[in-house]
Design brief:
Oligomer: single chain
Shape: elongated
Structural class: mainly beta
Number of strands: 27
Length: 327
């Protein structure tokens, strides 16, 4: 799996070359291997992912994930595929496992999972170009206790418990490439009007088949200690050390800055105000070379916090109390 994942022109793409085709991953640490539940095969295959802290079970309809500690559940599997307006229901398949990889052979589409220290890599190999016009669409059935909220760039979703602002898992980092290793534009997000489905849309008009479609199920790389209602975030080097620090605008709670020290974020500043902040942005408003922080507030005055040697203090408050959504 590549670590070079990005966004180009609002679509998720792969920007490296890989060999055509697919193969079982037979190597890998024993703790990430899939095992047949029934001796001799023919039933579900199961695995544990220590990095995610979850147990995974692959059945004929897809994957079921539960935490080693906790009370939520996630199920995910390919439900329909084809061209827009002509999607075809997929048929159940018998799970097969080899080392860290498990798969469901659904005919023209192989749905597969690779279990490793990065997370649960979910992929699809489409053997031949489906008939029809328009982009290729894969529709995934999403079940369990988690809600899917779209992430920026149409490259994935955050999976969250109802009423909890912290993501339990991320289904994102989508890569798509064709038989020549060429990147193919694609997007991933909730299906329109249906909270129980996810949709991957692939612009395959010029792609050479077989096609490989490859999102990743992971946990967050960092989670704040606070459970604020964040409305906006902005990256900026507020302390001038060369690392990007994180500003978070909250509603209706104090805004925060998390300082980045060698890749580790820690709380470094809390505003004295508890506004309904819908937008934050960094900028050198006083021309002294330090990044100052602007906060756009809903139903309240907007503010600028001046940065003096790495210390933020309130420097300006608007006379107006508008419904500001962006700064």
């Amino acid at each position: 799996m590549s670590t070079n994942r990005g966004v180009v022109a609002g679509l998720c793409v792969l920007s490296i070359l890989l060999a055509a085709g697919w193969a079982f991953a037979t190597e890998g640490a024993a703790e990430y291997r899939w095992f047949a539940e029934k001796q001799g095969g023919g039933g579900d295959v199961i695995a544990t992912n220590a990095a995610l802290g979850v147990e995974a079970r692959l059945g004929s309809d897809g994957l079921r994930v539960t935490p080693v500690e906790g009370a939520w559940e996630l199920s995910l599997g390919l439900a329909r595929a084809g061209r827009e307006g002509a999607l075809v229901e997929t048929t159940p398949a018998t799970p097969r496992a080899d080392g860290a990889r498990a798969e469901l052979d659904r005919g023209n589409i192989i749905e597969w999972w690779v279990n490793d220290q990065h997370g649960l890599e979910h992929g699809f190999t489409v053997r031949e170009r489906p008939e029809g016009e328009g982009p290729l669409v894969l529709e995934l059935a999403l079940g369990g206790d988690l809600l899917a909220l779209p992430e920026p760039g149409e490259c994935g979703v955050a999976l969250m418990r109802p009423g909890n602002p912290l993501a339990v898992l991320h289904y994102s980092a989508l890569e798509v490439f064709d038989a020549d290793g060429e990147s193919v534009a694609a997007r991933l997000g909730p299906a329109p009007g249906d909270g129980g489905r996810l949709r991957i849309v692939i612009e395959d008009e010029d792609a050479l088949y077989p096609l490989t479609i490859d999102p990743l199920l992971t946990t967050a790389a960092w989670t704040s200690a606070e459970s604020d209602w964040a409305r906006s975030v902005a990256w900026g080097d507020w302390d001038g050390d060369g690392d990007l620090d994180l500003a978070v605008g909250n509603e209706p709670q104090p805004n925060r800055v998390y300082e980045n020290t060698g890749g580790a974020l820690s709380s470094a500043w809390i505003s004295a105000d508890s506004d309904s902040t819908f937008s934050v942005a960094w900028g050198d408003w006083d021309g002294d070379g330090d990044l100052d922080l602007a906060a756009g507030n809903f139903a309240g005055p907007n503010r600028v916090y001046e940065n003096t040697g790495g210390a933020l203090s309130s420097a300006w408050t608007s006379a107006d109390s508008n419904d500001t959504l962006s700064v």
